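In the previous chapter we treated chains in isolation. Here, by contrast, the input contains two separate entities that must be folded as one system, with a combined length of 993 residues.
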Amino acid sequence: MTAGPAPAPEIGAAVEQAPATGASPFRRLAGHPWSRFALRRAGRLLVSLWVLVTASFLMIHLVPGDPVRAALGPTAPAALVAERRAALGLDDPLYTQYLAYLKDLLGGDLGTSILTRLPVSDVVGQRLPATLALATLAFLAAVAIAVPVGVVIGVLTRRGHGRRTEAAFSSGSIVLGTIPDFLLGVGLVYLLGVTLQWLPVAGNATPAGYVLPVLSLAVGPAAILARILRVEMVAVLDADYLRTARAKRLPARSLYLGHALPNAATASLTLSGLILGSMVAGTVLVENVFAWPGLGTTIVRSILSKDYPLVQAIVLVYGLGVLLINTAVDVALALLDPRSTIRED
Amino acid sequence: MNRRTAHRWLRVLRTPMGRTAAALVLVVLVLAVVGPAPWNARADAVDTANILAGPSAQHWAGTDNLGRDIAFRVLEATRLSVGLALAATAIGVVAGLLLGTAPWLLGRRLGRLVTGAVQIAIAFPGLLLALFFAVVFGVGATGAALAIGLAGAPTFARLVQTLLAGVAARDFVAAARIAGVGRLRILVRHLLPNIAEPLVVNATIGAGGALLAFAGLSFLGLGVQAPSYDWGRLLYDGIGVLYVNPAAAIAPALAVLVAGLALNLLGESVAKGFGMDALVGLPASASPSPAAAAGPAQPAAERPADDAPDDVVLDVRDLTVSFPAAAGPIRPVRGVTFSIRRGEAVGVVGESGSGKSLTALAVSRLVDAAGRVDADRLHLLGTDLREGDSAAQRRLLGSSLAMVFQDPASSFNPTQRIGRQLAETSRHHHGLGRRAAFARAVDRLRAVRITDPDRRARQYPHEFSGGMRQRAMIGMGLMGSPALIVADEPTTALDVTVQRQVLDLLTAIRTSDAVALLLISHDVAVVSEVCDRVLVMYAGRIVEDLPTDRLTTGALHPYTRALTAAVPRMDSPLDRPLPVIPGRPVDPADVPPGCAYAARCPLASQRCRDEDPPLARHPSGHRVACWHARPEPAHAEAVRPASVVEAS
């Protein structure tokens, strides 16, 4: 699913090195599936990072017209525009600008906001924690909901058991999984915030303020994850090795949680990586529903005010988050299912 | 093709979800097409006397900050919302098709570049891509449509690539290429029509997604700008006045939700309806004849009473396994009685479907919960296994009964190291700690002749060869102190040289520790080599129970004789066809009232067809279930040479 272009010589190398298990320690390390996996995965991460950085650099140049003029408005004096253009380096040749951009980026300098003249890294540093907290909590909530539900429903609906439960669960989870997070947010605000007045509907000043944003972000992914997990559980419960585990007369707990769940989770992980990645982007909408002081509200404001350096930086941060999640998912997959380290995709 | 497609669509419409979704999509589309005209004036009518009013009879969803009617504005917005969503979908589909077919048209090197780019783009969520493009194309309806369309393109491109790869490998494409047809022509004439169906389904789901995404962008203020409005824009305005008139936010939210869900669910139902095509051909469950269902239980004519009780490891009497089916239960095992003594090796042979594997699973209590196991007696080492699932029973089964399954490749958990899988038994049943259990696992691996067991125990199943896996499986059974090994086709999945090692290992374990063995196999040669005694099963019954050395010369049942005659031997005449058993095995759902073998038996008489022979002790000493049991007639008589298979 999350595949990069695998270089052709590597496949050949994998085939040649596979039987060399008894060779010298060095060769064993070099030919070890784990080190090959690490190299391949790191290579893919680097290529994706480069694409991300280049895209965010090009963004400001793809905007039709003069971005500085657009940001400052038609009434801004020509001299000011020229000065800002020079400050942003927009008059230099493209490759000079690209190199300067890369250099600044490596030095942690994300540029300066066109409007506020504040360093962008300060703004990001100030806003990132709130977004990270929201995304992390929502991810944990989604997993905490999806795993027990998926496992229990999977066990209940194995091998044609509980057909009614299955039908109810699958239509319910499809509907829940389709409702977009921001609509769910609006609904929750109306129901629990405005009508019942149980929970605060804006900001993160109190712990209770986290409940609604986290819920709106977590429910959809949780429903999809639970659905995938159920399907995988049903398949795994039918596998030969589960029969072997039953033949060992293990208690139900280690049968389902020890043998079935890791395999079902492995099969679900690749897809859930995509879902979790989209949760990162989902924070943008949810933050705007709940006036959350995070990156999501900032990026929307800066897109509207055409503060491009800030937009560039936030797009980079989100993209980086997604790439890190994808990598983490692949590593988790390799840990859970060692066969995936030798699988070329 | 066309009729089939129409038929499938009809089937989708017959499901409740498909029907509801299709109806809703139709309503939304009609609203979008004919909608605006009737309420155009009312949606934009400013009523300053009624600003931000709540829902009333006059204004169902209240009014906005200019006193305009929210309900009509929501209806009015249908056209723009749906139109923009469809435009975005069209952009996405076109861009996706271009990107997806590029590898086919551009050839390997350039194609790989495009594929790689799509792979990278697809890793980023759609909303992030949409935000990126929204910056590039600028805030507004056109920019948002382009942004959402292009953001959806990578996913669609990936789908096109995958589908193309599947179709391009087919013969007719190869034929067209050999005939010199150009790549573009092949694409348009042969490939695209073949992948159109899933593409349409996915475009439908995509349209639902685009609708929701558009609402999202407009809600953020990045999509449709005032004075135009779509549902997202109304939501954006409504959420600002949520405390004054919640309906102003709820009404457009509901509209988005209904339309988006309808499109999504229609796509999902269609995908499901089409995908389930493969399942339609499920075996039409043959109705069992009433005679089979109510058939007389095997009269327990002969009880192995002569066995001293303390010597018996496994004692089974009148074992029945049945599965519920639409037309009454099916009974693949119909009254099996046998016992196994300490250190004895008993083989079970029979064609596939004779119930031999199920018998093995039933005595080990591993039949799936759907199946029902009944027996007059089912004792392992004197413990009744018929009822309950106590810890004591589990410990007995876990440590005294070892199972070896047919396919060692799939019988190990792929995600756990071999050592851990072995150690598990000792940890649960013998209370050993992690380290002690692992040491025992290493020791047991050594016992099954796995070299370098310490290293091997730390490896995963996929790092083992097939034979090694099967030996490790046997080792797993030896973690306890087994009194009985049940091996279900242990060598079938292995090649001949490895078969030998596994059989030798089983024999060695049996003789050194006096472990009994129940060996299920379709291979008469394997059984006669390893076992002392053979149970011949046919249609869920034991038809003969005889010592192995009598198998070739002293068999009394015509089925046993046919089975052994079908095994090629060193002295089989090469110039004559190898005998086969004529006819087909009995369907467990449709067992005849008399002897199940009668239809294929050369000796069958009317009595055979009417009355099922009991398994009784024959004067020659072993048990047989046949009205015509007699020793060794000429081979030619027992096996019809008429059915001919070329002896190769």
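Residues 252-289 of chain A form the longest helix (38 residues). Chain A has two domains: 35-106, 127-337. Compare these points with the single-chain example from earlier in the chapter.
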